[in-house]
Prior knowledge:
With 63 residues, the protein is mostly helical. The chain contains two helices and no strands. Helix 1 packs antiparallel against helix 2. The longest helix is centred in the middle third of the chain and has 27 residues. The radius of gyration is 15 Å and the shape is elongated. 3% of the residues are buried. It binds fe (ii) ion. The site of fe (ii) ion has 3 residues, from helix 2.
Amino acid sequence: MIRENLVAERIAIDSYRQFANFLADRDSTTRRLVEQILAVEEEHADELAVFLEDLPSARKKPA
Ligand SMILES: [Fe+2]
């Protein structure tokens, strides 16, 4: 579940990043709003990644 949430966060990050790039100079106000949302999503992804690293059951077992 945590891993799936991390994947979803990363998909959201990619989408917001593409949207911000599209907006570029077209609409700088909306671009700044999207960049703020993007920053929050990046924090969520970082938190989930750290949580996964610290979760013994989530670690990959050696083959
Ligand atoms: Fe999020």
